[in-house]
Design goal:
2 copies of one chain form a homodimer.
Chain A: H1 7-27, H2 33-40, H3 44-50, H4 54-76, H5 82-96, H6 103-112, H7 119-138, H8 148-163, H9 171-181
Helix pairs in contact in A: 1-2, 4-5, 4-7, 5-7, 5-8, 5-9, 6-7, 6-8, 8-9
Chain A binds a DNA duplex (19 and 19 nucleotides) through residues 5-6, 8-9, 12, 32-34, 42-46, 48-49, 54.
Chain lengths: 188, 188
DNA sequence: ACCTGAACACCGTTCAAGT
DNA sequence: ACCTGAACACCGTTCAAGT
C-alpha cells in the first residue's frame, strides 16, 4: 500500500512530518504551518494536500503515542491493584500530554469535536482508560460517581496547568496525587 | 485625579473598556484588539496608548473582580470551618475565572510572568487565598504539603478543562469536589 | 497631550496555473 | 496526480504625521 503513492508524494509527506516534529517541538502545537512547509522545503499547498487540517498533521505525528498508551492500558488491566493501575496510567497520560507544549489543549479540543482529525485517536485513548476506570470502580478503589471524560479532563487540566507554571518539574505528579487522594486531610 | 486627564482621553478610555467588555465576552481573552478599537470607534494607536498590552486592558476590565475575590477571602477567614471556607473560596475563584473564555489561561500566564500587566492583581488574589489555605492547614483540615500556587494551578486547570468540555455546566463544581476529596475511594 | 491610520511582518487558507 | 506560490483576509505592533 505504501507503493500506491507516487514516490515524490511519499517523500514530501516524510519531509513534512520531520519538519513538523521539529517545529512543534520548538513552538508547540500551534506552530506556524508556513514554517513547517518552509523547513520541509515544500510549498504551503503541499502541506495542505497531505494534511488538510492542523489536527490531521498532529494525528500523523502522534498516532504511535496513542497506540502505546492504549497498549499500556491493556497491560495494566491485568495488574493486581486496580486503583494503582489507574493512577499509573493517568500518570503516563499526563506525561505523554507533556511531550509538546499545547498538547493537552489539542487533545481536549479533539475529544470535544467529533469532526477533528485527532478525534479518533483521542477517543480510543479515552475508552482504553475507561476500562481501567471501570475496573477500579467495581473494585471500590475509586469513587463510582465519576465518568472517564471527567477523569481525563481532570488529568489534562493538571497537565495544562503544569505546562504554564514556573514550579518544579514534578508538578504534574504532585498535582495528580493531590487530586487522587484529595486536598482534604482526613488523617492519612 | 480623574480631572487630571483630558476629557477626550477619558472618553476614549471608557469607550475602549466598553468595547473590550463586549468583544471579550464574545470571543474570549484573545479577542482581536483591532476589533475592540473598531467597536470603540477609535484608532488602533489610541488603544495602545491607553493600554500598552493586552494584559493591561484585561487588568482594567477585571480589577474589580479581583478586589471582590480578595474581599471574599477576608470574610471567609472568619468562617468557623476553615476547610469549608477554603473550598468555598476556590469555588468562587473557579466560577470567576469562567466569566470570560480564556481567562484561566490569562490568569495562569500572569501569575508566571512578573512583568505582566495582570500580575499584580493575580498575585494579590493568590496571597489572599494563601491565608485561607494556611488557616486550613494549621487546623489540619487540608494536607500540609501543598502550596498556594499548587492549589490555584489545580483550580485553574480544572476551570480550563471545564471551559473546553461539552459536559454539563456544573462540571467545574464536580471536578473541584473530586479533587478536594480525592478520586480514590476510602470509604466515605 | 492625544489621536490617527498607513506600514511592517507575520498568520491560515484557497485555488489557478503549472508539471 | 501532485506541486507551487500568489492572493485574500485577517492579525499584533510601531511610528510619523497631524490636531
Amino acid at each position: 500500500m505504501t507503493q500506491a503513492f507516487r514516490a515524490d508524494a511519499r517523500r514530501n509527506r516524510d519531509l513534512l512530518l520531520t519538519a513538523a516534529r521539529e517545529s512543534v517541538a520548538e513552538h508547540g502545537t500551534d506552530a506556524s504551518l508556513r514554517d513547517i512547509a518552509r523547513r520541509a522545503g515544500v510549498g504551503i499547498g503541499t502541506l495542505y494536500r497531505h494534511f488538510p487540517t492542523r489536527e490531521a498533521l498532529l494525528e500523523a505525528l502522534l498516532n504511535s503515542n496513542f497506540d502505546a498508551l492504549r497498549a499500556r492500558a491493556d497491560v495494566l488491566l491485568a495488574a493486581p491493584d486496580s486503583g494503582e493501575a489507574l493512577l499509573t496510567w493517568l500518570g503516563e497520560l499526563a506525561a505523554g500530554s507533556a511531550t509538546y507544549q499545547g498538547l493537552p489543549e489539542s487533545i481536549m479540543n479533539a475529544l470535544a469535536d467529533e469532526t477533528s482529525g485527532l478525534h479518533a485517536s483521542c477517543a480510543g485513548m479515552r475508552s482504553a482508560g475507561g476500562q481501567l476506570l471501570k475496573r477500579a470502580q467495581q473494585d471500590g478503589s475509586v469513587r463510582s460517581d465519576v465518568t472517564v471524560s471527567e477523569v481525563i479532563a481532570l488529568v489534562l487540566g493538571l497537565a495544562w496547568a503544569a505546562e504554564r507554571s514556573v514550579e518544579s518539574s514534578d508538578l504534574i505528579a504532585r498535582l495528580l496525587t493531590t487530586a487522587m487522594f484529595g486536598l482534604a486531610d482526613r488523617g492519612r
